[in-house]
Amino acid sequence: MSGVAWKLAEVSEWEAARASGAYAGSAHDLADGFIHLSTGVQLVETARKHYAGRNDLVLAEVELSALGDTLKFEPSRGGDLFPHIYGPLPLSAVRSERRLLVDGAGVMRFEDGAIGWG
Question: What span, in angstroms and rounded, lies between the C-alpha atoms of 53 and 58?
Fold first, then answer.
């Protein structure tokens, strides 16, 4: 497994996380009882499936080793193992973040115009 995973989050939720020092999760995360992350390989489909047409997003790169026992890899879409965080995501575990949108076709586009994965 890679040492990093990715979290797509709404800008407003991410700003609240910055203020508190931890990301508590989206409504979907809270309903499921864990924070959903994606590996680099999984990110394209996650963006396409769950975020197409959104322009209010942050993509955060998360250092997995900083999560300790709160991190679990569990089967999800197609049986693929996804990283899940059981508890808040401490912002100290975030390596980087970038604003982006996911266009109607599900392609990630960063605010500087660069096209992300896929």
Answer: 14
Residue 97 in contact with residue 63, Cβ under 8 Å?
no
The enclosing domain of 101 has a CATH number of 3.20.170.20
Summarised one tens digit per residue, pLDDT across range 17-57 is 999 999 999 999 999 999 999 999 999 999 999 999 999 99
> What is the pTM (predicted TM-score) of this model?
0.91
Domains identified in the chain, total number: 1
In order of 24, 44, 48, 49, 94, the CA distances from 91 in angstroms are: 10, 23, 25, 26, 5
What domain range is 17 assigned to?
4-110
